[in-house]
Write a structure and sequence with these properties.
Elements (H helix, E strand, L loop, with lengths): L4 H7 L5 H10 L1 E5 L4 E3 L7 E7 L2 E7 L2 E8 L6 H9 L6 E4 L3 E7 L3 H7 L1 H27 L2 H16 L3 E2 L3 H8 L3 H13 L3 E4 L2 E4 L1
Antiparallel strand pairs: 1-7, 2-6, 3-7, 4-5, 4-6, 8-10, 9-10
Length: 209
């Protein structure tokens, strides 16, 4: 699909006509399917993705375990990728498409230049860092102070609210990866939730009551 003004209108982030011209000239539209790796942990970042449709999952791995950092949804970008491009560092995280996802691909060489020249781009970058900072702080507080069963319940409530469906397609291992714990712990908690009639458990699916 060709990048057009209509697509830029869908995200409605950048107001300056000259900036929009530069985006159309230098950026690309790319589509990823579920499971595609968009940014690899440890690689030098050459482009920054802005989501037009779909969702990107950003996480870190350590000793064969994963910890979810945040999701990148439409009109958002990856803070870790922005940070890596500003300082020419390796990416500290991995970004993977959760579903079919359309992404505006921005070359990193333009990031700081546009921040100096265009107020809407500068506001977008600052807003990204502020919003992600708040999210990561909330995640830290949850990990530090909340019991894991509360975090599981809040995660399921969030997924149900976001997708407007009480059936969450996720395995016990995937849920463990999302919350930075083990499959054994998740299975124990979900079994107790089922006994408490909070959920019904199926293979690869949790029905939230």
């Amino acid at each position: 699909m060709t990048l057009t003004n209509d697509i830029l209108n869908r995200i409605d982030l950048f107001t300056e006509p000259k900036l929009r011209e530069e985006i159309l000239e230098h950026c690309q539209l790319q589509t990823f399917i579920k499971g595609d790796v968009i940014v690899r942990e440890g690689q030098f970042v050459k482009v920054v993705p802005i989501v037009i449709s779909g969702v990107i999952r950003v996480f870190q791995t350590k000793e064969d375990r994963e910890i979810l950092l945040y999701y990148v949804e439409p009109k958002q970008t990856c803070m870790m990728s922005l940070s890596a491009c500003f300082f020419n560092n390796e990416s500290p995280s991995q970004a993977v498409a959760v579903e079919k996802t359309e992404v505006l691909i921005v070359p990193t060489r333009l990031i700081t230049q546009w921040q100096k020249e265009y107020s809407s781009w500068n506001q977008f970058v600052i807003r990204t860092f502020r919003n992600r900072y708040d999210e990561l702080l909330n995640t830290f507080e949850s990990v530090a102070f909340d019991h894991i069963d509360k975090r599981v319940l809040e995660y399921l409530e969030s997924r149900v609210s976001r997708q407007n469906d009480n059936k969450v397609k996720i395995s016990h291992q995937e849920l463990a990866n999302e919350l930075g714990t083990t499959r054994v712990v998740i299975s124990r908690i979900l079994k107790q939730f089922e006994l408490d009639k909070k959920v019904h458990l199926y293979r690869g699916l949790i029905e939230f009551l």
